[in-house]
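Progress against Task 2.4 (sequence-to-structure conversion) is shown through the following example record, which the project officer requested during the mid-term review.
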Amino acid sequence: MRKTESHGPLIAVFGATGYTGRFVLKELLRRGLRPIAVARNPTALAAADFGKSDFECRKATLDNAESLDEAFRGSRAVINCAGPFIDTAEPIVGAALRAGIHYLDVAAEQLSIANTLDRFDEPARKAGVAVIPSMAYFGGLGDLLATAAMGDWDRSDSIDVMVGFDRWHPTPGTRNTVARNSIGNLCVTNGQLAEVSSPPLQRRWKFAEPVGHQEVIELPFAEVLLIARHLKTSELHTYLTQVALNEVLNPATPGPKAVDAMGRSGQNFSLEVVVTRGDERRRATVRGRDGYAVSAPLVCEATERLLKGEYRCLGAHPPGVIFDAKGVLATLGDEYAVEFSANNHVDESPTRK
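Structure tokens generated for the chain above:
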């Protein structure tokens, strides 16, 4: 067991030994917060190399409520980094509510997000805490971009979320989520949630460099469930670069390997949200390296804002409801470029292939 000499608030990180969990631990420490590394596997926890960082490690399992309560004891919030979230979210939210602390996760699964928002809004409000699913690259980041792009519009004709990767080396957690088949299959069409059409829409899209021109295919992602909760639009669709889809479905694709001092992989991303109303068009873009890594500053910024009381409401809501979207995006700093623009350019229309 490690103990820290820092005097900042304690934040529990469930799934701390995973790829994203390690980035979250580092980011909490950078901000002067005290992480508690929580994991289900005591062997993995004991063997984990967290570098020179000094903090407490605790074991907890999903089927043992007492172990979760003990693991989160003394903390002000819990960040769940362990998927598949269709399995982990409910017991961990339950433990957070029993402890009266905020809950955040990095889920990319529509099913988990819907369950979390539907089941825990009233209990979270009664407990005086926030429950925020998908405060991550997939989901929350797109929701914040869409919220910022909408701005003063009360509704839009369409929102397209374009998820651009030049490659995708998946973590074991991503592979487990795909195998669990819990991602979901919903988009918004004619103002209503509906299943994505078959065959899926395809188009060619010009992302910011270095991702560049890419073939993209419609895939249902977490953004749909978040954006549809609070932004009015007739059409809402999410797309992924075909090269990324091919890699994540290929069992031979290796996992992410660090290539820089921050521990990020060489994967480049450009996440773009395009909102249209009539002949008006607004675009919000964020680009950088390693889609897993960018989840750390996002979820840690959200956690810090909750602790400081910098939020609009409590309960279970999408990030764009609870926080000032542009304010959160502005904190990503020089490592991740955020841009906003407005124009009337029309990209190639989607087709079925």
